[in-house]
Amino acid sequence: MKKSHFIFILIITFLSLSFPNTGLACDCGENTYENSFNSSELVAIVTVREVKGFDQFNNAVKVSPSTVLKGTETNLIPFTIYTGQNDAGCGYNFKENEKYLVFARKERLSKNMSKDVYTTTSCIKNVHIEFNK
Q1: Cα gap 126→39, rounded to integer Å
Q2: pLDDT at position 22, please?
Q3: How confident is residue 19, by pLDDT bands cut at 50, 70 and 90?
Q4: Cβ distance 66 to 47 under 8 Å?
Q5: Which of 13, 43, 52, 88 could potentially form a cystine with 24 if both were Cys, beta carbons 3.0 to 4.6 Å apart?
Q6: Enclosing H/E stretch for 69
Q7: Under 8 Å between Cβ of 40 and 104
Q8: Strand 79-84 relative to strand 117-119: parallel, antiparallel, unpaired?
Q9: Average pLDDT score over residue span 79-107
């Protein structure tokens, strides 16, 4: 009995160490558009120009704003927003050449960065804007 119990625990331990990313998921809780707006430094309608990997966890999303509803990007110069690469990292799935209403916060992604950057997640109420063609 003790030997089988020990083997069972050993197998469970081995499996849990073999698949360290299994079971990770983004847990957002409840969020509203009002909360997203109030907690964001930037709210803008943007067109996504390019999505590419930035590091092993994040994508760099180059965007061109057409309207800024909140924030300091009032001169409508293209800029970059960072988001997780997948659902487990709470990444938002942006598509190139598509329009979005984006809620973004400023934060430092890593200690190697010299300044804060705009970030967004799937937990914030970003909106894909679709037009009938």
Answers
A1: 13
A2: 44
A3: very low
A4: yes
A5: 88
A6: strand 58-70
A7: yes
A8: parallel
A9: 92
The pTM of the full predicted model, rounded to 2 decimals, is 0.74
Q: Is 37 left (phi over 0), alpha (psi -120 to 50) or beta?
A: alpha
Domain map (residue ranges) of the chain:
33-129
Q: How many CA atoms lie within 13 A of 76 on its CB side?
A: 8
pLDDT, tens digit, 9 for 90 and up, residues 114-125:
788 999 999 988
CB 84 within 8 A of CB 121: yes
On whether the CB atoms of residues 124 and 31 are closer than 8 A, the answer is: yes
Residue 97 has what DSSP assignment? Answer: T
Q: Do the Cβ atoms of 27 and 123 come closer than 8 Å?
A: no
Mean pLDDT along residues 101-108: 92
Rounded CA gap, 78 and 69, in Å? 15
* Structure-block tokens of residue 63: 């965007």
